[in-house]
């Protein structure tokens, strides 16, 4: 999207709530000449449609960028600051660069361009919806890859969220190297192991 002030990117993250894996963020500059129908909050789109839309976004956007912060960074910085770091990396990865950013949520990452936070922006701003879709599909893909490396946890089913079967696997097998050590259920198991 563009206006008199130049290109505007939408920015969103995926994966703040899981107990394992990185937090992802995406930044997208849509092309007003090539609208993409069906953009909305990625959580409200069935997975097959989300994957199809992600392909359309990559094909038709003026620019897009996906970035992440690792579980080590999440544990060191906290999840909010790690999410903002991933967002910053995504915005800085855009080519062409954006002149302004619209950020989903109530906080903006530190950026070299003006930014505005919009609560529930993924439901109201198509460029944020597009970023939401890319961040979610890329993170899901990464969690399926990690499921092959750590098959005991079912990451391909729950993407690291604290579902009953994930919590049961965590209890049985203990934390994997990609679990977030600062998150309650993981932290409690690690402390119990020290007793």
Description:
By secondary structure, the chain is of the alpha/beta class. The chain has a single domain (2-194), classed as Ribonuclease H-like superfamily/Ribonuclease H (Nucleotidyltransferase, domain 5). It has helices at residues 47-60, 71-77, 79-92, 121-124, 126-149, 155-158, 164-173, 184-194; strands spanning 2-3, 6-14, 23-29, 63-69, 100-104, 115-118.
Structural Rg: 17 Å
Q: Tell me, rounded to a whole number, the average pLDDT.
A: 95
Fraction in helix: 40-55%
CATH superfamily: Ribonuclease H-like superfamily/Ribonuclease H
Number of domains: 1
Sheet having the most strands: 6 strands, mixed
Short précis:
This protein is α/β, with parallel strands linked by helices.
Task: Throw out a few tags for this protein.
single chain, six-stranded mixed beta sheet, Nucleotidyltransferase, domain 5, 8 helices, alpha/beta, 195 residues, 17% strand
Question: Could you outline the blueprint of secondary structure elements for this entry?
Answer:
Layout: E1 2-3, E2 6-14, E3 23-29, H1 47-60, E4 63-69, H2 71-77, H3 79-92, E5 100-104, E6 115-118, H4 121-124, H5 126-149, H6 155-158, H7 164-173, H8 184-194
Parallel strand pairs: 2-5, 5-6
Antiparallel strand pairs: 1-2, 2-3, 3-4
Helix pairs in contact: 1-5, 2-3
